[in-house]
Design goal:
By secondary structure, the chain is mostly helical. Helix content is about 75%, strand content about 0%. Helix 10 packs across helix 12.
């Protein structure tokens, strides 16, 4: 590889230097985008309005005018009203940005909250870990709609999903050949094992015991149930 690089006049050092320069340029562009995003946010407007109100509080001349001038009082009132509106909008932005749906949308696209900033709310796992988990499920070939539903709600969205998942896991437990394939890293088995686990843990709870038993019997007699 070094010989090939030298033959073209492009050395490994040149390659490493180019990679470092690209990484630095990407980081600069990301920082610029983050700054641009923040300055267009309600949170930034609220910060600016607070600064303006603090400046008025520190202005002795204005405070004197406020005692006798309706215009001065109106100026403070207008800024206070704008601040309340900006703070309300900022709270909504935060709620929407870190909602389960927004996090799943980012993760499905391989993105992390807010250009790589690690943010969590309540018991959410770190964004990078969450994105990696979602991307791993997609890489296994699990249907995107099921991945989205499971990671957004904790449910599979399938009435009999937990029955099918449990049925497959029971078959796995009784079949040494299936176990051997899974342990060997067989891609199909890894996908089916992960899917079964998601279906079991994502139980929707809207099927009766009788319906569950009937569906399990149907699975046992269905020719589509292969390894």
């Amino acid at each position: 590889m070094a010989d090939a690089a030298n033959a073209t006049g492009y050395t490994n050092a040149d390659r490493d230097r180019a990679a470092i320069e690209k990484s630095a340029a990407d980081a600069t562009a990301q920082l610029e985008q983050m700054s641009k995003d923040y300055k267009s946010s309600a949170g930034y407007r609220a910060e600016q309005l607070r600064a303006q109100l603090e400046a008025l509080d520190a202005d002795g001349h204005f405070l004197g005018q406020e005692l006798v001038s309706h215009g001065a009082r109106s100026q403070r009132s207008a800024l206070t009203s704008q601040l309340a509106k900006a703070e309300a909008e900022a709270a909504t932005e935060i709620k929407e940005a870190f909602s389960p749906e927004a996090r799943v949308d980012n993760a499905m696209a391989g993105k992390v909250d807010h250009h790589g900033i690690e943010t969590t709310v309540n018991d959410q796992i770190p964004a990078m870990d969450f994105t990696a988990e979602v991307q791993a499920d997609l890489a296994l070939g699990i249907r995107p709609e099921l991945v989205r539903e499971f990671h957004a709600t904790g449910k599979s969205g399938l009435k009999f999903g937990h029955v099918e998942g449990r049925y497959w896991l029971d078959r796995l437990a009784a079949d040494p050949e299936m176990q051997a394939r899974l342990n060997a890293g067989d891609s199909v088995m890894r996908q089916r094992f992960r899917l079964a686990c998601m279906l079991v843990s994502g139980r929707c709870g809207d099927a009766t015991p009788e319906e569950e038993a009937a569906h399990r019997n149907w699975l046992a007699s269905s020719p589509r149930q292969g390894r």
